[in-house]
């Protein structure tokens, strides 16, 4: 299951974009967006998000 971003918690810091090993996350309108078809379910973004704005679906 792919990572999911809570838009209310996301501050657009881009930490997840920088650390995603499959380049599945991008910032759109200053919020992280996960491309589900590219996400490899590694949970790196979940562990590294400073706002705890990402969880696994």
Q: What strand line-up does the widest sheet have? A: 1-4
Structural class computed from helices and strand pairing: alpha+beta
Give the terminus-to-terminus CA distance: 5 Å
Uncertain residue ranges? none
Instruction: Say how many strands there are.
Output: 4
The CATH architecture term is 2-Layer Sandwich
Number of helices: 2
| SSE succession | EHEEHE
Question: What does the model show?
Answer:
There is one protein chain. The chain is built from 2 helices and 4 strands; from the N terminus they run βαββαβ. With 57 residues, it is of the alpha+beta class. The chain has a single domain, classed as 2-Layer Sandwich (Alpha-Beta Plaits), CATH 3.30.70.20. β2 and β3 form a beta hairpin. The model has no long low-confidence stretch (mean pLDDT 97).
Short description:
By secondary structure, the protein is an alpha+beta fold. It is built from two helices and four strands; from the N terminus they run E-H-E-E-H-E.
Keywords:
single chain; 57 residues; alpha+beta; two-stranded antiparallel ribbon; 2 helices; globular
Helix and strand arrangement:
Layout: E1 3-5, H1 15-19, E2 25-28, E3 31-34, H2 44-48, E4 54-56
Antiparallel strand pairs: 1-4, 2-3
